[in-house]
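Incident log, entry 3
Record: SPG16 protein (164 residues)
Problem: checksum mismatch between cached and fresh output.
Input:
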Amino acid sequence: IVLTGGDDRLWKTWGFPDGNILLTGEGHTDWLSGCCFRPSGTQLVTSSGDTTVRIWDLSRRGCILTLRGHSRAVRSCSWHSCGDFVASASADGTSKIWDVNSERCRYTLRGHEGSVNSIEFLPFSSTALTSSADKTLSLWDVRTGVRVHTFQGHVHPCNHATFN
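Fresh output:
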């Protein structure tokens, strides 16, 4: 299954490789910037220009949780490999680690001086990686919300970063 999100405020799942649309989800009030399956495959997370992060249940075909707390567009979202946490990165200069079970923000990651454009978890660890318009990348310990390392060297904004 392929998952997409677009400027039309919708997410879609597509059969692979035939390309048939399987499901469509609506509920965001602005463009979608990111989407990610829960490791179990039963749910997904989306991020949007409407400042929210939403959790969707595929069997119920609807939004089951809206996470609010960012003050500007949410640029990226990621699901932790354990399935209990979601991360979001925002143009407000922060990232958040959300506890899906308690439906609350566990940590707000502060330290970038510009928009945080992406966030990803290192699989099977407590480390997250952010990229920012401030031209830096940061590693975070998501158990404590503390930045543990900053990478510098880009001369323009960083739009995305990932682990191998």
